[in-house]
Amino acid sequence: MMKRHVFKFARSRMGFADFNCFLVDFETGSCSTSRNSDSKGLLSHQMNASAPRMCSTSCAKVPEDLPKDNPVSDMLLDSFGRLHTYLRISLTERCNLRCQYCMPAEGVDLTPSPKILSQNEIVRLANLFVSSGVDKIRLTGGEPTIRKDIEDICLHLSNLNGLKTLAITTNGITLARKLPKLKECGLTSVNISLDTLVPAKFEFMTRRKGHQKVMESINAAIDLGYNPVKVNCVVMRGFNDDEICDFVELTRDKPINIRFIEFMPFDGNVWNVKKLVPYSEMLDRVVKRFPDLKRLQDHPTDTAKNFRVDEHAGAVSFITSMTEHFCAGCNRLRLLADGNFKVCLFGPSEPRQY
């Protein structure tokens, strides 16, 4: 039987009997609101009206123009008409870096290990989502590569019928030595975080050494045939905004997709609007140095605005989380390491109940 902490977002507002019914409905693909139609059992009545409602992903009706043979369950369709076919799974809350924009120097309180999702729970939940229409899973953290059973998790997930993409977002510290095995286990896409090309800056920002290891991981991914290798760079004024064009230069001869991310506020990162470098300013700097920058066609669910410099092997993207939101096309769901569930990164955190 599944541990009780799984899908606490449902249990925190429903009786345990209703929670079991919710899981049964999700496993069978049915959707019934009758048992919750009276009061606080219905999740959507308790969510902030300005944010996507969690219940809507399981109880919305399929639009009339949706093909009848569409494999996506109406349980993954929300009231805004978005099909949530992309699941991000956090494998751990732990990380081997202490990036200043991510967490305080002393770290954060962690969920006790016994209350973190087990491998079997992760695979079972992923299977429920994939059987309902999710076709892309991304493994995240914390830092996912520090989880000892990550290879086994990848192997099980990659074998799920209907899954097209199994990706990972990593800081790259331990990736180089693990990536060959991860690829054998079915990992199809790699995102590596790197905010500076200067080793001293890297150590200052992350409070750890390891710049060379990250560069080795990027090159290892290229050598193993990942194309593109996505490199995530959080741009902060006064720290690395002077390196924007240096990052773009990396795309000249290698299949690297540099993804510039606007600095975003998170708990404990002492966010300051003065550190924010908006997309328009970043783009202007790139165009001045690379006038042949061309806009590419984005997929409707892309969070990034994509570009390519003529004759460059790679691409350049901008993730405009702060200045030009992309909520209308967002198709992401998030399963946290402790079993909590979020539809939106900026949505309210679900209370932990044990």
Automatic annotation (TrEMBL):
Q: What is its EC number?
A: 4.1.99.22
What the entry lists under InterPro entries is as follows: Aldolase_TIM (IPR013785), Elp3/MiaA/NifB-like_rSAM (IPR006638), MoaA (IPR013483), MoaA-like (IPR040064), MoaA_NifB_PqqE_Fe-S-bd_CS (IPR000385), MoaA_twitch (IPR010505), MoCo_biosynth_MoaA/MoaC (IPR050105), rSAM (IPR007197)
By what name is this protein known?
GTP 3',8-cyclase
Provenance organism: Prunus mume (Japanese apricot)
Cofactor list? [4Fe-4S] cluster
> By its UniProt entry, which NCBIfam families does this protein fall under?
moaA
Indicate the enzyme's highest-level EC class: lyase
Catalytic activity line of the entry: GTP + AH2 + S-adenosyl-L-methionine = (8S)-3',8-cyclo-7,8-dihydroguanosine 5'-triphosphate + 5'-deoxyadenosine + L-methionine + A + H(+)
